[in-house]
Write a structure and sequence with these properties.
The protein is of the alpha/beta class. It contains 11 helices and 14 strands. Helix 6 packs antiparallel against helix 7.
Amino acid sequence: MISICTLADSKFAIKFLALRESIRNHTSEYTINLLCLDDDIFKLINNNCKEVNCHNIKDLLNSDKELKKSQNNKPSFESLNLCGGNEKGAKKLQFIWSLASYYSWYCLKHCNIDDIVYVDADIYFFEDPTRILDLKDFGSIGLIENRVPYNPVNGLYNVGIVYFKNDKDGQSCAAFWKDCLLHDDNEYASAYGTCGDQKYLELFPKLYNSVFKIDDYLGHLAPWNIHHHQYIADKILWNGKLQKLLFYHFSNFKEDLKNKTYIPAPRHGILNLKNNKFVFSLYEQYFKDMESLNENIIWNDCI
């Protein structure tokens, strides 16, 4: 049984539903914990997806003064960059980024589970996600790389998927990550607080011995790294390893369901993919799944 946690608001609801569909397509042995960032998505998912455990951000804010106070934390360099220097927007984005660490810690503490896999809601699985659990004997904390040449702002690792075992190291690491984001004056902030929650991941192997790299065993792609892979039939070649694709991170995917079209990832400079048949097929499948979900009566009646 794989326990997954993620977060989304109503604007991201269809992406969450696509993530859920991709999990359901490959396994029935799963639970999903969803942190709902507004009331609309809470009502939609809580009323119609019975296997999803929904938590409302309002409840967490009301029960934790430190979390509530962190809404006014200083924005990171990358959040300001993405918001064009608008501090109000950057603070909001920074807070949302902080919730991956908080919710991972929260689920370990309160959900009576053996481990948790944090997954960004715009990820879509093309293979069985329980394959991640095949790696848990390698350690208590699992990370994925950005799979691009090193950038000192974004860091080595990507926050799209992070694994924590519910043991001493996993609990400690999740709490450490959470605390870094709650307190923008932490001792690591100047060096590791440049990209929301993400660069803090570089500290995990420095502070804990039980960290393993998921990349060594499982393949994944994202808009920022598709040009750093080779494609052989239905597999990807990365760092000398030929891998099946476990998931794709559809960051900045711009769907236009009304007009039956999409732009893959404009912020990452990906406007079309017709010169890469393999990656293009992934986007086509993702969009087709979204179209099907959008036509569903539950979706149209509830949001």
